[in-house]
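Worked example (supplementary).
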Amino acid sequence: MVRGSVWISLAYLLTPSFCLHRLENYKEDLRVKPLRDGRVSTTFSFLTVLEDAVPRHPTTLELPDEPQHYALFPLTLGQILREYAITELHLSLNAGKWNYDDWGHPPEVSVGTGAELWAWMGVNEVMTIDERWSGLRNALSGLFCASLGSLDSRRTTSPVVAFPLSGSTPPFAQHELRHASLASENVCTENLTPFLKLLPCKSRAGLAELLNPQKVFDADWHGMGVHVIWKEGTGVELKLTLQAVFNPVRTSTGKRRDWSLQSLFDRSIEQSCPVANYSSVTVVLPEEKNYQITPQPPVQVDGLAIYDLSSTSDFTIPTNIAMHWSNEHRFQYPMPPLPALTPLSVKRTLHGTTQTRGVLSISVTNNSPQEILAGYLEMIPTLLTLWMHTLKVEINSDTRSMTYSHKMLPLLIIVLRLGDLLSDLKYQPPSPQPNGHLSPSMLQAALTIPPKSTLKISVEVDKAFLKYTEHPPDAMRGWDLPGAVFFPLSKSANDTSSSYNWERIYTPTLLVDLPTPDFSMPYNVIILSCTLMTLIFGSIFNLLTRKWVVVEIKE
Amino acid sequence: MRLQLLPLLLACLTTWAIGSSNSSTFYSEHAANFFGRHESASGHTNNWAVLVCASRYWFNYRHMANALGMYRTVKRLGIPDSNIILMLADDVACNTRNRFSGSVYAEAGRHLDLYGENIEVDYRGYEVTVENFIRLLTGRVDPSVPRSKRLLTDDRSNIFVYMTGHGGNEFLKFQDQEEISAFDIADAFEQMWQKKRYNEILFMIDTCQANSMYSQFYSPNILATGSSEIGENSYSYENDNDIGVSVIDSYTHYVLKFMEGINKTSQTSMQDLFNSYDPVKIHSHPGIGSDLFHRPLDKALITDFFGGVAQAEVFPLQEDAGSTSHHKSGSTSLPFASESGTPSLSVVPSATVTSLLTLTDEMHVWDIQRKEVRKWASVFIVGCIVSWVSLVR
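After joint prediction of all chains, the assembly is encoded as:
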């Protein structure tokens, strides 16, 4: 009898549970690349795949959701994705300016300064995309301790060409994009803490052990990203990335560019994450062979040294991976001019000396010998009003500095017809939103840049005059203008292959100095008018009611 | 005349007798007896902390360090991040002027990093406004506000509210742009009292002329303390030469130094903290506002406000002492006199813990029956009085 019940209970335990148990796998990778200016670029990439999962259908939003059970996929983020039926989500929190010329293209493309959030969602009438976008922003702001709640309709646009779906398009529902960025967002340890809590092993095992906030936030550039993509055959992919560009020359005592994981992060990897299918450190080996790398990489292929740290591999975890240049006494910066590492170099400035008008000028240089067709996207909040009739495009085939060409070779500055260089211009002016604010203006154009030349676009702008209550507490600092985005375009509609040799490029952000009022004036006006009213009322009251009489004092 | 008055008098007496044996307050009495078993115990079940640094800019580093020092103290003493609302008006740890990125120090030698690796700042930067602060306290937040930014307290929560920044006579400056007045905070606390959002509040404030900020409170169970009297400034304690600015305020420095000796099991009371105030060292006169606080200060523990300490008592198992039929697994039950109308609750401490569990099952049915009886009896008596009055007329 006892035996029978034991068998029955065993059989019950072995049968699959009622709820859908999806397979999940987790991979982590650290890519270290020494750069030519002595810096070291590190990219952590943590990939969790929820196999055979499908994003929530927006029509099921009014019904309660089916229970989700995750082993490795983070529940907090999963719940937010299901709550608002998000198909694709990208959030990046970056600080610093990515130097494309010296550092090349970043392994993770979204390097715009500040916070950038964009999501693709399916259309639904019951819970509109804008409601879900607002819910998503606030939920993520609570999860990541970032002030994403202020990315409301004043900063939200829908640039579908520049930010297409990275994964597969789900068959249900028409999808729409919402994109917003906040260039003034600070990134600090309070953003890293919840980021690490989304990992299966947190920061206790695996590559995430290296993430020391004191070192990461001291880097010349740092940024973290959360990317959720749906791929049809694979399922829902969550990629958490953290990139940082360190400067060993600045932080070391002898101005050397030698680096090691211990010197960069002040930490070492004690144990590998047991639930990781694959965990590795990849070092991109420099071209000149005057370096030494310790320990000897077990696998060396394609100029990459790969250390496999998975718990299943035979390779014991190295306590420290180091690269040093023992023949160098101190690091010598390579002398300019240096060829830019990316085909396009971009610069953006805001000229003008007054606080009412200015000129926004963008200069795009094509460093490659082929013509490049680039898309140009500007999403400008209503701080600046663009005067489209003043849009000018100049081409200067002399790649020397701008002022030099202006003075010495004026004949080579040609103002070509806009149709040759700038085409498909789309301008969306600010439109009033339900909450009383104006949406940002969006400028999109296709630029055809001839080889080895610089294209300059300039447009006159007016700076907004805000009400005194709309200014931030530190009004004298100015407002941050999010960076412009350049993205590759295909030459014809048939050419759908994504074989471009460059990716999305962000310009640095700009600080716009708006006219500020005298904030003490409300106080002054109240004081003066109250004084005036008191004097008037007091005088009239006394005149009407006060009577002077002689009082006799009896001795 | 007197004979006619007699039935009226009897009727009044019976209604009063039945009314006084009011069993609808039975539960609240029993709960109050359970929580108030040790006289002058706080009676709270959870702790929250609201730590506000209201000033911005790099030269106000010390205000950020004040708030972070309090954050680390309450976290060390047991309040979890989900129960702490930290509002920092500016980011000093990752500020480009900070030589020591990711770290905030509160003393000149830079031994202890207050920022650390595990920190959650709920309101940061431009989100620290007077409106958000008052909405947080009163609970009137927009539906879109996430859970980590809400104060989800109940009537058994002890809340520690700490504010620091630049202030003056009955006001505190938020981010150099707006002010919150003592009346605003007093009204917010009163709203919280009306909505039963706190059990007790400890309000601590470190600004210039801080004691004026709690002078307008009028809700019960608030213990307030400030760093300086009206007309006095609060001073910073020391500078760090590498950071380049003052790193901590005097009052907060001495409070944190006192807290270093406290751990979760400590029985140190608020009176000990207040006794440690030394106006000569702090360079200002800290004040204490305990007129709205009904417990003696030497019985109010530091961990009642600063810590998230679970109260556990160990009872020895008692022998069978009960005489009623309400037995459960051999433990003693309430010595409940089922005959009389009034439940004579001689609460035996050792039995209370186990019997409280059995209480709800047993008392529920009984209590409903008694309520019904009482209701009909009072209706009958009122009907008698009315008919008697009409007959007399």
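Two points are worth noting when inspecting this output. The interface with chain A takes residues 56-57, 89, 91, 93-95, 100-103, 113, 115-122, 124-127, 144-149, 175-177 of chain B (CB under 8 Å). The CA atoms of residues 185 and 261 of chain B lie 31 Å apart.
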